[in-house]
Design a protein that fits this description.
Number of domains: 1
CATH topology: TIM Barrel
Helix content: 25-40%
Number of strands: 5
Structural class: alpha/beta
CATH class: Alpha Beta
Largest sheet: 5 strands, mixed
Strand content: 5-15%
Strand order of the largest sheet: 1-2-3-4-5
């Protein structure tokens, strides 16, 4: 049985806009559809990727709103982030995710793959 899901939905990248943030409920619904199609459990977290090493300005103006839109559909505890260590820390600090996994390529010197909440 599938325990966790990584949503194959549009990712948040540098240059994201308010329109991107407004699409979050659709991305959440697509993540739920994919989880259901794969036979995943009803309460499994769904991970959303922050695909580039966005800065704090993009996080504060757009990304956090995107995750709040996802939370409106999934709730915080079912929302996961896959991204760099900075983005995972910001998501935890803003209380918009229940799970995180850190990309090795965008997280030096941390490196490695972490699962769970990265310390803020």
């Amino acid at each position: 049985m599938l325990k966790y899901a990584l949503a194959a939905t549009p990712v948040l990248a540098a240059g994201a806009t308010a329109a991107t943030a407004a699409a979050a409920p659709r991305a959440s619904a697509e993540g739920l559809r994919l989880l259901d199609a794969a036979g995943g459990p009803d309460l499994a977290p769904i991970f959303f990727s922050v695909d580039e090493d966005i800065g704090s300005d993009t996080w504060g103006s757009t990304a956090v709103q995107w995750f709040r839109g996802i939370n409106a559909v999934l709730g915080v505890q079912r929302t996961g982030i896959y991204g760099g260590a900075r983005q995972c820390r910001w998501a935890i600090a803003d209380d918009v995710i229940g799970h995180s996994t850190v990309s090795r390529s965008r997280s030096t010197p941390l490196g490695g793959s972490l699962f769970g909440r990265v310390p803020a």
